[in-house]
Amino acid sequence: MVSRIYTILMLFMLHLTVFSQKSSIIGKVSDSSKQDLVGANIILKGTVRGVQTNSNGEFIIKGLNTGNYTLVATLLGLKAKETNISLGENEVKTVNFELEDETYTLNDIQVVASRGVRGNEHLAEIDNYTINATKKNEVIKLDHINANLAMNNSRQIFSRTPGISVWENDGSGIQLSVASRGLSPNRSWEFNVRMNGYDITPDPMGYPEAYYTPPMEVVDRIEIVRGASSLQYGPQFGGLMNFVLRKPDISTRITVESQNTVGSNGLFSTFNYIGGTEGRLSYTAYYQKRFGDGWRDNSYYNTDHAHAELSYAITNKFKIGAEVTYMTYKSQQAGGLTDAQFAQDARQSVRSRNWFSTPWLVPSVSAEYIFTEKTKLSWKAFGVVAERSSVGNVAAITAVDNFSSSRQVDRDYYNNFGSELRFITDYKFLGMNNTVASGLRYYNGNIDRQQQGKGSTSMDMEFSVEGEYPRDLNFNNINKAAYFENIFRFSKRFLMTAGARLENINSIMQGRFSLSNGQANNLTPITRERSFLLFGGGAEYHLTSQTEFYSNISQAYRPVLISDLTPPATTDVIDENLQDARGYNFDFGYRGKVGNYLNFDIDYFYVNYNNRIGTITQTNASNQRYQFRTNLGRSISQGFEGYVEFDPVTAFFKTSKIGYVSIFTSLAYIDATYRDFKTTSVVNGQVVEGNLSGKRVENAPRKINRFGITYNKKGFSMTWQMSDIGKAYADASNTETANSAATTGLIPAYSVQDLSASFKFLKHYNVKAGVNNLTDERYFTRRAGGYPGPGILPADGRTFYLSAGIKF
Predict the structure, then answer these.
(1) Of 189, 426, 546, 740, which is most buried with the most CB atoms under 10 A?
(2) Cis before 788? omega within 30
(3) Structural domains in the chain plus CATH codes
(4) Among 265-269, 297-301, 322-326, 515-519, where is mean pLDDT lowest?
């Protein structure tokens, strides 16, 4: 065995030696004032090869064959330059670039600098293998914002993204629950949630709940495409949310980074990263450890995240890659509160034996081939091998836990895999460059769900069960899809897009629904197969080189999920005849920038959601209220979203010795209401009819407003922000007065402030600090019907953090 390893190492070293004998290109990139440019991209045109400049503006591309090459140097906000070179055998050629300022268009991602606005950017019209033109989209650059990234503070992360509602009931930062335009934030399930372009949820078409969220300290950017993901990712109403992790550092052989954070309630987080490029090989890896007590009593978390990635350019046109992500954690859940308990002390907890864990493994392999400068092909294969395990007392919060009763154990097991093939090419039509993107997808998701197990009376996290699980279900979902989308350019200012997606979903649910006196209540296997074709299109008109009107309409589809078919709590009832939902999204907006001191994006949206699945409060013959999950008819969400960020110092004085100020406003007015839907209930033995018409969609505040101001001077930056969120309802009946279990009722309006700062010095070091919920407000964003409730789940009060980092 030792001899084999030695032989492999010798061959690997010989391989590197051979590459080292090939030709290389070295050089330096600077601006018109002779300042070194860090992070400039140097690309060999029409190949997969490329690097970035290091902290001295230098670059090197190794392992090149003899031949002719076109070298392109780019940096956002500067004019690209290219040069042709010829390499001889074993030649080292020096090529230096000087990039000049340029007034650029929205064909590029918006640039931010040390001065000027530091807000959200927009995706390029064509980005890798996707078409983003005509669509409402945002790019959140994590290194452009001051936020508590160690705790994944979503209120700060999405502060400049208008219309994003956030459930703030998980202060550990383990899970992300966000939505837009009147949709449900429940673990972000209305979004198609991806990481590096591939799915990370249990099953996008069967159980799309985002139990896994990557650490924001390693996320380079979050890409959001509203609506139906331009039909290139899926038919979801919410659209796409893609976490793009930092790629291997292509400017140096090795980069090492460590960020360590301490804070309130025993918070400790350590994030450690390594990455680099050697010739054709790029690599990266990170590890994050985070633990602490939650803000509430009976709260605790201990998480471990690890990720590794390799990519190798086999030839100048062909590259392969592999990556794997693993997360495991132990989380104690404080449970819900009644309204009276919340008013008395929001930090209290009457559940001390509730625990939650979701070990998550996500492997992926990929390949990319560049046929020509205009045509390329990409393939990804990926999987999810994971669990969702909970143990605790999930009875109504009014039921006292006597500590001698058995806890309920619920476990899911996910074994899923998928593959996507994407192709994009440019072609000439009527003298203009047009682009077509297309792709094929296959996904096989399998979920084993075991619920209502009789657990132990222990206080700790352990999932042993006495006897069988009363509920033991298997859910298999096979999804096949094909799509295409085309950009038709009619002039330099005007373009249109048209696309379609063909989808096939085959779902099978079988198993045991319950046990009664030892007798199994087995389900008759439920099989649903449906195929459907969705269409979308849009238009874009560039009013100036930096501003544009855009509009898009696309159909959407949401199949019945496994979670729709199984109640989250013993008090809930599921409609046996649930149907898939479908509808469409429409946008019309105006976006752009003026110089580098003003960014804006203002739009009107309209979401038509038919057969929407939701919960309604009913009253049974015993005059007891319960939650009924069913199709609630048609809902309409419409309104306006606006984002404006302005730097008055840069606008009026161009430069400043005392620093720069950036002011942002993110506003959203959302009118999400139900149309005609008749209801019946029994009150005092009498049948009472009602109608949801005009009722507001649950968990959909009418206003989502956020404001902030950032001060920058050299390496120092400080941001204050305020979130002002309107009231919402926990059920479609718009129940004002809470029930005794606190699962229905009003979710009051609230406002909360955050303050964060960072200081970078001596090139390699940084210090960060902040206060979340500056004024220690007491509020909540969610009334839970099931785990980790039931009841009110309070948001965190005031917390502090302090972080120090090094990178070299």
Answers:
(1) 189
(2) yes
(3) 1-104 (2.60.40.10), 243-248+258-536+555-807 (2.40.170.20)
(4) 515-519
CA distance 443 to 359: 21
Q: Span 661-684, mean pLDDT?
A: 86
Q: Round to whole Å and give the CA distance between 417 and 439.
A: 17
For residue 790, say if its preceding peptide bond is cis, omega within 30 degrees of 0: yes
Q: How many CA atoms lie within 13 A of 535 on its CB side?
A: 2
Q: Are 309 and 248 in contact (CB under 8 A)?
A: yes
Distances (CA, A) of 243 to 193, 199, 528, 751: 8, 10, 32, 28
What's the rounded Cα separation, in Å, for the pair 162 and 604?
Answer: 12
- Which position has the higher pLDDT, 79 or 437? 437
- φ and ψ at residue 320, rounded to 5 degrees: -120, 160
Burial bucket for residue 422 (CB in 10 Å: 0-12, 13-18, 19+): buried
Alpha-carbon gap, residue 495 to 492, rounded angstroms: 8
Angle (CA) 210 215 216, round 5°: 105
| DSSP β-ladder status, 92-94 and 23-31 | parallel
What is the SS3 assignment for 40?
Answer: coil
Confidence band of 376 (pLDDT split at 50, 70, 90): very high
50 pLDDT above the threshold of 50: yes
DSSP letters of 727-746?
-EESSTT---SPPTTSSSSE
- The DSSP line for 640-695 is EEEEEEE-HHHHHHS--SS-EEEEEEEEEEEEEEE-S-EEEEEETTEEEEEE-TTP
Separation CA 453–CA 467 (nearest Å) = 8
The overall longest dimension of the chain from CA atoms, in Å, is 93
CA dist., res. 230 & res. 126, Å (int): 12
Q: Give the strands of the sheet with 41-44, arranged side by side.
A: 50-52, 41-44, 67-74, 81-87
**Sequence-distant (≥ 6) Cβ neighbours of residue 652 within 8 angstroms:** none
Task: Please name the residues in contact with 130: beta carbons below 8 A apart, sequence gap of 6 or more.
Answer: 230, 232, 422, 424, 437
134: part of which helix (H) or strand (E)? none
Tokens linked to 464: 């042993």
Question: What type of residue sits at position 710?
Answer: T
Torsion (CA) 792, 797, 802, 805 in degrees, nearest 10 = 30
pLDDT tens for 208-244 read: 999 999 999 999 999 999 976 668 999 999 999 999 9
Q: Which amino acid is at 39?
A: G
